[in-house]
Write a structure and sequence with these properties.
Distance between the termini of chain B: 36 Å
Largest interface: A-B, 18 and 21 residues
Oligomer: heterodimer
Number of helices of chain A: 0
Strand content of chain B: over 45%
Shape of chain A: globular
Low-confidence stretches of chain A: none
Largest sheet of chain B: 7 strands, mixed
Helix content of chain A: under 10%
Number of strands of chain A: 11
Order of helices and strands of chain B: EEEEEEEEEEE
Distance between the termini of chain A: 40 Å
Mean pLDDT of chain A: 97
Largest sheet of chain A: 7 strands, mixed
Number of strands of chain B: 11
Order of helices and strands of chain A: EEEEEEEEEEE
Shape of chain B: globular
Strand content of chain A: over 45%
């Protein structure tokens, strides 16, 4: 059974950093691209970033470029999202997703609140 | 960025009804559209990919169609377990973009 478990969310002040982790199991992690998707009541679902199987190719939405870094450790079956210079508009539930043809499996989500 | 205009925002149906949701892309997305179901407090669950391909575990009462810019998603014979929000996703071009969602409620 495919499982994706996010961790690392919480309350953080504007301008500070936070690192999310996503532990994967139930499939060969190194064979799949991975992604982060976030959701807010006002903006809905937004793709945030993606990473290729080996980690050599990464992609970001414009609003997080230069602030967020997606990475992965295939030996640990884990992907990460380093979020720097956080803004109030980054407040959201962040989901880890496996990239089959699309986002075919999702984690349960982790809440990130950016507020002073 | 490709905009996905999803309608209606909400839908009220009786058990056994057929309902249809549409998504119009701001440009041709070459059938690269997926549909997701989301229940409160849960992650989205993929139901359909590449316009009309049901993913494993998706009941046959769900269907999808379309081409070019215009796509639709239907549920025939709505069941109580189908009460949820539904989203389209275009994955033809980065940034992948979602529709705003349709909330399906029981009449």
């Amino acid at each position: 059974e495919v499982q994706l478990v996010e961790s690392g969310g919480g309350l953080v002040q504007p301008g500070r950093s936070l690192k999310l982790s996503c532990a994967a199991s139930g499939f060969t992690f190194s064979n799949y691209g991975m992604a982060w998707v976030r959701q807010t009541p006002t903006k809905g679902l937004e793709w945030v970033a993606s990473i290729s199987t080996g980690g050599g190719n990464t992609y970001y939405r414009d609003s997080v470029k230069g602030r967020f870094t997606i990475s992965r450790d295939n030996a640990k079956n884990t992907q990460y999202l380093q979020m720097d210079s956080l803004r109030s508009e980054d407040t959201a539930t962040y989901y880890c997703a496996r990239l089959g043809a699309t986002f075919d499996y999702w984690g349960q989500g982790v809440m990130v609140t950016v507020s002073s | 960025d490709i905009q996905m205009t999803q309608s209606p925002p909400s839908l009220s149906a009786s058990l056994g009804d057929k309902v249809t949701i549409t998504c119009q892309a701001s440009q041709n997305i070459n059938k690269y559209i997926a549909w997701y179901q989301q229940k409160p407090g849960k992650a989205p669950r993929q139901l359909i990919r590449y316009t009309s391909t049901l993913v494993s575990g998706t009941p046959s009462r769900f269907s999808g169609s379309g081409s070019g810019r215009d796509y639709s998603f239907s549920i025939s014979n709505v069941e109580s377990e189908d009460i949820a929000s539904y989203y389209c996703l275009q994955y033809d071009n980065l940034p992948y973009t979602f529709g705003a969602g349709t909330k399906l409620e029981l009449k």
